[in-house]
Amino acid sequence: MIRLLRSLMLLLAAGLASPAWAEAPPKLIRVSAIGAPGQRTATSYMGILQTQRLLEKEFARDGVRIQWLVLDGAGPAQNEAIANGLTDFANYGILPNIIGRGRGLKTRILASYGYSNSYVIARPDLPIRGVRDLKGRTIGVDVGHVPHLALTRLLAENGLATSDVRIVAMKTPDALAALAARRIDATIGPVNLLNLVEQRKAQLVFSSKGRKTEATNIGAFVVTDDFARRYPETTKRVVKAYLRAVHWAADPGNRERYLAFIARTSNTPLALVRQDNAGELIRDKANPLPVRAYRERVASAAAFSLDQKMVRKPVDTRGWVDARFILSAAQELGQLRYWPR
């Protein structure tokens, strides 16, 4: 946090966080986000941003129209939207972000989208009681997405390599079906995996809840480089609205309303959403500031992408995070000291 405050002071001194950015915003701002299948409302903090019309309120006096693009194709769909010039801002997992950047997408990371927990479940008829018991097993995983990265980190933390298991590429719904049919031995993913545990069709092997682990899901709120260069003040105002959404979700007074919102927009039972967040502060999970630990994980994910041949050449993450906008916006909102260091 001290480094962030020092950076802010330098930016203020340089005039980068001042009215020198004053500009006429564009007539249209396009935002893409991830939604569950069949949903037109985005999940998580982007859904709060959307349903509370925080961007519309921010730009109401300017006559700016906000266009939302809610996609259920997760990272690849977000990359495609950026590549085809269909959106200015997007929020999705760090691995597809890196893959997109490695393929030439020019973006800037404006904020972290915090983290979400990972779960590993396995067939109930197998003697798999912990992560080390996955050795030699077949694991279904959404390759190229954050569960793939989380699995690799989890294996490493338990003395295993990806070569010690057999990874089968499949989307999470397909992995759940394959596990129930006993065609694979285990899978990793978000809280909705626990549905099979509740049905006694799987056993819980690992949960990242309450652990110091990198086997969690992380991502980024990004802007296209062209938009940030042409409209820096507008970019900061978008980030400001995003911060308002995240802060609302992190407010303990809104906890139950936020958990109910997650359940509704992600098609996940409320009981599981509560279980996923039990004993944890949303404030800790939602931290949008791109602190040092976050930047290190981004760099580590880039190295992983190269190692796994998801990108053809190294992706340089230095300078990818443009913290000017969020530091300035957080300062204006009085949030710099609110978020955990």
Task: Put the structure in a nutshell.
The chain is an alpha/beta fold and 341 residues long. It has helices at residues 2-14, 44-51, 54-58, 74-83, 94-102, 146-157, 172-180, 194-198, 225-230, 232-250, 255-266, 270-277, 282-286, 292-307, 324-333, and strands at residues 28-34, 65-71, 89-93, 107-116, 119-122, 138-141, 166-169, 186-189, 203-207, 217-224.
Query: What's the end-to-end separation, in Å?
Result: 5 Å
How many β strands by DSSP?
A: 10
Low-confidence stretches: 8-20
- Give me the Rg, rounded: 20 Å
Strand order in the largest sheet: 2-1-3-10-4
What are the secondary-structure elements, in order, as H or E? HEHHEHEHEEEHEHEHEEHHHHHHH
User: Structural class from helices and strands?
Assistant: alpha/beta
**Largest sheet features:** 5 strands, mixed
Categorize the overall geometry. Answer: globular
Approximate strand percentage: 15-25%
Number of helices: 15
What would the average pLDDT be, to the nearest integer?
91
Task: Write structural notes for this entry.
- With 341 residues, this protein is α/β, with parallel strands linked by helices.
- The strands form two sheets. A five-stranded mixed beta sheet has the order 2-1-3-10-4, with helices on both faces. The protein has a five-stranded mixed beta sheet with strand order 7-6-8-5-9.
- α6 links the parallel β6 and β7.
- It is globular.
